[in-house]
């Protein structure tokens, strides 16, 4: 994983990765000190003391993805995905070329009384690169999308039984003719859907050949690939819908470009931005604030955008580590949770989009910080003291294969 995604230590340069993937690039950036701008009347940065670790779990394989279920009454459930490279076991591709076998697991967890983790289910799959729940029910069902190192996208249904579990309902491969192709990220088009009566949805999947793919999910949970467009010279680390107009797709690649596509037009980007100094690794559209988008990069800089003007960001903030994931909070949409690889996890207050501020950092993980997500449960649901404005968060790190459940106070007492 790290070898394919790059490192954030050392001077910026291209290095040869240990793991060979199509068009391999691994960037290394200088680890800078976190520079925190101050706003009159705003408190200084909080530390890990703002967080309270509730429970931990050893995932056995390196952990890289965490996603909380957004749908009632299952907001106390989340999944964690893992990625293990079995370098000693090689499988022969159809072309005769040998590629490393990548193994993974999907854990389904429940948060029970006293805020402890209870493992509900563990499934053995190809190595997991990304997972996302559909934001609403589709045909009355709660669905999870998973993209993996075998270039597959899988759809799981959460079976609403006494003991909830995941059931594989559909699986599709991006392209079976490209040895070593990886499906790298996915996003659902359902970010602003309010009704649970939806019957159709689209999924965008980026891959290691630099493409993004659009798949349609019909009422029987079958996937049909409708678009496969070239976007980046190297890996397309991230692709995301504009939730306000799902004809628009944003992509970020290892070629350091940030692109916008209109699916109604030709397969060429309608805008190209080169503000990022190295690979663009994370994009997340704000579902409550139109024209608001956040991007992250190996260059350690968070950028906030007004999508009406992609020429330049509204603001830039160094987070001290390569930014692998960015997640808007599910309640206010004012806070970002960031996985900063070699510099832990950060929470950024973005109420003033021209001047975002780091308000908390979680440094309890001792290895590469890749996966993080906010719980959709309100503080009243898991804390007797709602005045503290607590958020419930899950985080995971790679080589030490550790998952943490914690709370963080968004109020500086």
Describe the largest sheet: 5 strands, antiparallel
In percent terms, what proportion of residues is strand?
over 45%
**First CA to last CA: what distance?**
39 Å
Mean pLDDT: 87
Q: From the helix content, strand content and strand pairing, which structural class follows? A: mainly beta
Global shape:
globular
The CATH class label is Mainly Beta
**CATH topology heading:** Methylamine Dehydrogenase, Chain H
What is the second-level CATH architecture? 7 Propeller
| CATH H level, superfamily name | YVTN repeat-like/Quinoprotein amine dehydrogenase
Give the % helix: under 10%
Number of helices: 2
| Strands, total number | 31
Count of the separate structural domains: 1
- Rg over CA atoms, rounded to whole Å, is 20 Å
InterPro entries: Diphthine_MTase, WD40/YVTN_repeat-like_dom_sf, WD40_repeat_CS, WD40_repeat_dom_sf, WD40_rpt
Catalytic activity: diphthine methyl ester-[translation elongation factor 2] + H2O = diphthine-[translation elongation factor 2] + methanol + H(+)
GO cellular component, one term: cytoplasm
Enzyme class: hydrolase
Can I get a quick summary?
The chain is mostly beta strands. Helices cover 2% and strands 48% of the residues. The strands form eight sheets. Strands 4, 5, 6, 7 and 8 form a five-stranded antiparallel beta sheet that branches. A four-stranded antiparallel beta sheet has the order 3-31-30-29, with no helix packed on it. A four-stranded antiparallel beta sheet has the order 9-10-11-12, with no helix packed on it.
């Amino acid at each position: 994983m790290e070898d394919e995604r790059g490192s954030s230590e050392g001077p910026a340069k291209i290095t040869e990765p240990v793991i060979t993937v199509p068009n391999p690039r691994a960037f290394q950036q200088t680890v800078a000190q976190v520079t925190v701008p101050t706003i009159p009347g705003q408190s200084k940065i909080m530390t890990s003391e703002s967080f309270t670790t509730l429970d931990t779990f050893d995932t056995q394989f390196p952990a890289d993805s965490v996603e909380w279920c957004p749908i009632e009454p299952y907001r106390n459930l989340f999944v964690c995905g893992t990625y293990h490279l079995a370098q000693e076991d090689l499988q022969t591709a159809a072309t005769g070329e040998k590629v490393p076998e990548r193994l993974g697991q999907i854990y389904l967890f429940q948060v029970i009384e006293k805020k402890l983790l209870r493992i509900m289910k563990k499934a053995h799959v190809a190595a997991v690169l990304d997972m996302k729940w559909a934001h609403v029910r589709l045909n009355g069902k709660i669905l999870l999308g998973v993209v993996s190192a075998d270039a597959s996208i899988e759809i799981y249904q959460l079976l609403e039984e006494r003991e909830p579990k995941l059931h594989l309902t559909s699986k599709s491969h991006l392209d079976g003719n490209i040895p070593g192709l990886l499906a790298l990220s996915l996003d659902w088009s359902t970010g602003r859907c309010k009704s649970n009566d939806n019957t159709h949805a689209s999924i965008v999947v980026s891959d290691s050949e630099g493409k993004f793919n659009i798949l349609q999910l019909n009422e029987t949970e079958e996937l049909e690939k409708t678009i496969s467009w070239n976007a980046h010279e190297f890996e397309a680390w991230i692709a995301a819908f504009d939730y306000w107009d799902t004809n628009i797709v944003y992509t970020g690649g290892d070629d350091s470009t940030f692109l916008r596509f209109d699916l109604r037009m030709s397969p060429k980007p309608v805008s190209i931005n080169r503000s990022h100094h190295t690979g663009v690794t994370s994009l997340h559209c704000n579902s409550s604030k139109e024209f608001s988008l956040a991007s992250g990069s190996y260059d350690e800089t968070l950028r906030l955008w007004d999508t009406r003007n992609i020429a330049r960001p509204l603001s830039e903030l160094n987070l001290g580590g390569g930014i692998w994931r960015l997640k808007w909070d599910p309640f206010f949409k004012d806070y970002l949770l960031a996985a900063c690889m070699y510099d832990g996890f950060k929470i950024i207050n973005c109420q003033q989009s021209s001047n975002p501020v780091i308000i908390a950092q979680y440094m309890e993980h001792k290895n590469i910080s890749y996966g993080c997500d906010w719980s959709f449960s309100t503080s009243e649901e898991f804390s007797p003291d709602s005045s503290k404005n607590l958020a419930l968060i899950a985080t995971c790190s790679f080589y030490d294969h550790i998952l943490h459940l914690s709370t963080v106070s968004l109020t500086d007492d």
